[in-house]
Amino acid sequence: MNNKDLAKRIIELLGSKGNITNALHCVTRLRFNLKDDSKADIEAIEKLDGVIGVQIKNGQYQVIIGPNVGSVFEEVKPLLDIKDENVETVKKKFSVDMILDVLSGIFSPILPALVAGGMLKGLLALAQGLGFFADGAETYVILDIISDIPFYFLPFLLALSSARKFKVNDYLALCVAGALLYPTFVDAIGGDTSPFSFLGITIPVFKYASSVFPVILGVGLLAIVYRFIDRFIPEVLKMVVVPTVSLVITIPLALLFLAPLGAYGGIYLADGIVWMFDTLGPIAGFLLGFFMPLIVLAGMHQSTSPIQIQNIASLGYDYLLPISFCHNMAESGAAFGAALRIKDKEMRAAAFSTSFSAFLGISEPALFTVNVVRRTPLICAMIATGVGGALTTMLTVKCFAFVMPGITSLPIYSNPDGTMTNLLLMILCIGATFVIAAVLTFIFSSNSEVKKERIEN
Question: CATH 3.30.1360.60 region(s) of the chain?
Fold first, then answer.
């Protein structure tokens, strides 16, 4: 089935275009919100060629496609008349799941830019460590600037994706981000006192470059203010009055309250994670790793992106991405171990194929096609990821830029100071994780799935 036919069938089985109120995609999943859940035929969707599985989280239908999801979504867009990767705003009750869904929807569109910057940073660190660039080399400086752009101007990227998530004008949202990075404001960073005030109230000065939460809160406020004002302004005046008043209200409130609140929140969040890992040590790494497959199963793994980015912005490195890397290696190892035991030729080929996909950084195909279905590989992957998480914590392995965790992301673990120790420790951790998952699956599958498979055959 080609991408166009697959997109058409998914929409039909979700109750047709009129039943879909929201549609977007992340790295591996199509995500839909429906008006009437009873019209969705989940079992039929799961049987479609090209669909790995279906998950329902907080009322959102997540159709797992794998690495091909972007191409399938391109075929979904014209069928739903999508322009900004959303159909309309869906009203939901406030909950933790809703917050995670919002964060996932905001970060998914900007991941390519962040991954590009992160990969380039890692390659530059590796090249410098191997002596390919002399100190101050002009080529290195330019490439370093390119790698910094997605992170320094992260508020602009987040403003655009937040505007599309909150259904407010993109360009007004960019103005909110511009307020946080305005040169006069940036020049005041580091001063003893703030030179800015509004209506007699001093405006706190923070470094908002590479920040996450300030601009999201600011654009969220913009959406609320814009819709409120729009209700009372005559049609003939909307073009002039609504945007102007929205910015005049939103930007001062953002600078005075929301942006500092977001900045403090990000700092305390990063400090809290440091405290948790410092206090619990390898136990924290094991617990996070052990439950990581279940987090991915629930479709909540993208929700950790803000925390990871905030850690890198605040600390210069992140603790969580190494554990995510170990998770992908565990899923790969578990699928590989299962493949060595599977007798059915088609299933064995699928297991080897999905193992390679997880090795590259896309774990869902292995997770849903092999490991969850056969159960034992899932449990072995959880144990192996727990061990890998404990190892990365015990060895204090760090990730120095945001990137999708897969074998191609290894250069990111090269320390910016040019040393290779951190990279070698990461290789040790992922190697151990892969081997543990593969060996455990190979051993214990012989006592469960293999016998069952022989009986059925």
Answer: 1-75
Q: Mind giving me the DSSP string for 104-132?
A: HHHHGGGHHHHHHHHHHHHHHHHHHHTT-
**CA 68 to CA 19: how far, in whole Å?**
24
Q: Return the structure tokens found at 373.
A: 């279905």
Architecture of domain 1-75: 2-Layer Sandwich (3.30)
Burial 161-197 (b: 16+ CB within 10 A, else e): bbbbbbebeeebbbbbbebbbeeebeeeeeeeeeeee
Is beta strand 201-202 parallel, antiparallel or unpaired with respect to 60-64?
A: unpaired
Q: How many other C-beta atoms lie within 10 A of the C-beta of residue 39? A: 14
d(C-alpha 224, C-alpha 250), whole Å: 9
26 a catalytic residue = yes
Please state the rounded mean pLDDT for residues 318-332. Answer: 93
User: Distance between CA atoms of 75 and 82, rounded to whole angstroms?
Assistant: 10
pLDDT of residue 231: 92
Question: How buried is residue 264: exposed, middle or buried, by Cβ count under 10 Å (0-12/13-18/19+)?
Answer: middle
pLDDT of residue 135: 65
Task: Please report where in the chains the tokens 């079992």 appear, as a residue.
Answer: 43
- Cα-flanking dihedrals φ and ψ of residue 64, to 5°? -85, 120
Residue by residue, DSSP assigns 218-268 as: HHHHHHHHHHHHHTTS-GGGHHHHHHHHHHHHHHHHIIIIIHHHHHHHHHH
For the chain, give the mean pLDDT.
Answer: 85
- If you search the block for the tokens 């290789």, which residue do you land on? 427
Please tell me the predicted confidence (pLDDT) of residue 375. Answer: 85
Of 24-28, 350-354, 390-394, the range with the highest mean pLDDT is: 390-394
Q: Report helix, strand and coil shares of the chain as percent, to nearest 5.
A: 70, 5, 25
